[in-house]
Amino acid sequence: MDYDTYAEGEAVLGWLNAAYELRAARETDWKAFAARLMDSLSRAFDAVPATVGHVKLALSSGGALLTANLVGTRETLEVHGDTPRGKAADLTLNARAQMSPELLGEIVRAKMAETCGAEIGATAAAFRCLSPGYPRPTHRYKNVVG
Question: Domains in the chain and their CATH numbers?
């Protein structure tokens, strides 16, 4: 692997890893919430414009899990699985997009607040934005035998 080329590609990406505890005032359709959030994020990235490497979401509620992913444009947005309506959910979000980590963080915070509105409280259990450093693999192969 050409680590210089790999590092150049990663250097243009903002990385975001976040986890939220969601608490709603009333029963919430979490699948619809996840779809709205992902669509809102996609539209915001298009407006920058920023190339999206991926945005992945996992939301658990009532013992069930749904996932959503976006790769590139809004047309690739997929939501899989379902959860029962409820007042509580846990959400994990992972994003890689061609923008500064600061802008990526601002967009995610704004779109999370917008999607939650006044009805859903979102507490960030973890929130980290970064630009990756140069890869330093533990092991390297001198050649590949095929």
Answer: 13-128 (3.30.70)
